């Protein structure tokens, strides 16, 4: 099997290597802001005391967006500090990793204190598009470079070149990195497994169907890597060697991330039909017509949270039964804590909402300011929240916000 990578200046990665794909954009504007904050945003920056890890874009390889044991901010929240706009952050130890755009085609990976946001180190500028980091191994950019940075000081440990375009942040599971993409020559979509220690390609699988594309990233379970395609299939590949274990055509086109939980793969098609497939063999366990997706799923303790165009649904993961609906306008996927879920919204609502996990009732809200990019109004969140014990983080159009307890 031909390798997706060609080796270049490869070094053995030492302990503590930060892995990134890249997410985001550059916010410009005329400086005006319509500040509708409901919580304290005008106070001086102050240190935030949080604990826990969030090592990749959607929390883990299964895309659960959940820290169900973390007491985040169920009662109230306040902005402790803010950084310029960047990717969705990830956290390992006391360090926050992110990428930020330096222009239309340049990105930089950086490490910051998770308590204060202070800079620790910055990597070199690279050609590419800003995406969310994942801690454990490397950095991937749309320019075709896969780079391993030392988490302690940002030293480049190894670097790869690829001939594939990857539209999603990579997924890290154990000692491997999984990427979904397509070659620049327009050939079918592919999934690639990369060794997390050396950067070498372990296996790659090119889809035979030329119309297949993967616009929803990958999810990884106990034994399989799951890819959902725009032509309406879910494919399970063996983690060990990439062999196809099963293919389901029981869904329509999929463009939001799939999620794995409790032995099921959860998929939402463009029309708003949510399906639970057996992770073992792809058999449909249940199916429910809800509403078109706006942000996809989160999963925690046998509850599937689904962000749709008319709000956030809580569904029983076992049978799809609706537990509650929290009305919102086009929310992003929620993040799950111990007592609440945290939902961020984009331009129309421009808010962060804490919602009771059991009842779906509102707990508290924060409104992000409307900003201007030239004569174009913008504002609101760009990515799902990141939750830790004691605080949470949201990337909005005007910056990366760190929220802690009010007071």
From TrEMBL:
<dbReference type="Pfam" id="PF13360">
    <property type="entry name" value="PQQ_2"/>
</dbReference>
<dbReference type="InterPro" id="IPR002372">
    <property type="entry name" value="PQQ_rpt_dom"/>
</dbReference>
<dbReference type="InterPro" id="IPR018391">
    <property type="entry name" value="PQQ_b-propeller_rpt"/>
</dbReference>
<dbReference type="InterPro" id="IPR015943">
    <property type="entry name" value="WD40/YVTN_repeat-like_dom_sf"/>
</dbReference>
<dbReference type="InterPro" id="IPR011047">
    <property type="entry name" value="Quinoprotein_ADH-like_sf"/>
</dbReference>
<feature type="domain" description="Pyrrolo-quinoline quinone repeat">
    <location>
        <begin position="191"/>
        <end position="289"/>
    </location>
</feature>
<protein>
    <submittedName>
        <fullName>PQQ-binding-like beta-propeller repeat protein</fullName>
    </submittedName>
</protein>
<feature type="domain" description="Pyrrolo-quinoline quinone repeat">
    <location>
        <begin position="312"/>
        <end position="400"/>
    </location>
</feature>
<feature type="domain" description="Pyrrolo-quinoline quinone repeat">
    <location>
        <begin position="74"/>
        <end position="164"/>
    </location>
</feature>
């Amino acid at each position: 099997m031909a390798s997706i990578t060609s080796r270049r200046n490869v070094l053995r990665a030492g302990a503590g290597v930060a892995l990134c794909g890249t997410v985001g954009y550059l916010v410009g504007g005329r400086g005006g802001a319509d500040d509708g904050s409901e919580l304290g945003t005008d106070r001086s920056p102050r240190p935030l005391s949080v604990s826990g890890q969030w090592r990749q874009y959607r929390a883990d390889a299964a895309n659960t967006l959940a820290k169900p044991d973390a007491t985040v901010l169920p009662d109230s929240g306040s902005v402790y500090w803010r950084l310029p706009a960047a990717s969705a952050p990830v956290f390992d130890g006391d360090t926050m990793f992110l990428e930020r755009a330096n222009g239309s085609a340049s990105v930089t990976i950086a490490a910051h204190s998770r308590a204060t946001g202070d800079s620790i180190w910055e990597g070199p500028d690279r050609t590419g598009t800003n995406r969310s980091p994942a801690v454990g191994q490397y950095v991937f950019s749309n320019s075709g470079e896969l780079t391993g940075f030392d988490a302690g000081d940002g030293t480049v440990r190894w670097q790869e070149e690829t001939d594939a375009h990857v539209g999603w942040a990579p997924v890290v599971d154990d000692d491997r990195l999984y990427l979904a993409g397509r070659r620049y020559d327009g050939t079918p979509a592919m999934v690639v497994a990369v060794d997390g220690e050396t950067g070498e390609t372990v296996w790659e699988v090119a889809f035979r169907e030329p119309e297949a594309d993967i616009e929803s990233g990958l999810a990884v379970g106990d034994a399989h890597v799951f890819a959902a395609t725009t032509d309406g299939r879910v494919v399970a590949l063996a983690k060990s060697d990439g062999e196809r274990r099963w293919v389901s055509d029981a869904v329509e086109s999929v463009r939001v991330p799939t999620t794995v939980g409790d032995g099921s793969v959860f998929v939402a098609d463009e029309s708003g039909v949510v399906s639970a497939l057996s992770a073992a063999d792809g058999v449909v366990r249940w199916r429910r017509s809800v509403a078109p997706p706006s942000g996809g799923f989160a999963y925690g303790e046998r509850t599937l949270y689904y962000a749709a165009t008319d709000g956030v649904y809580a569904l029983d993961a076992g049978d799809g039964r609706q537990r509650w609906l929290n009305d919102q306008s086009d929310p992003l996927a929620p993040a799950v804590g111990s007592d609440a879920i945290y939902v961020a919204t984009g331009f129309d609502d421009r808010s962060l909402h804490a919602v009771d996990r059991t009842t779906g009732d509102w707990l508290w809200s924060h409104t992000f300011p409307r900003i201007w990019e030239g004569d174009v109004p913008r504002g609101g969140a760009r990515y799902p929240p990141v939750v830790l014990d004691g605080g949470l983080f949201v990337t909005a159009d005007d910056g990366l916000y760190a929220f802690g307890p009010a007071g």
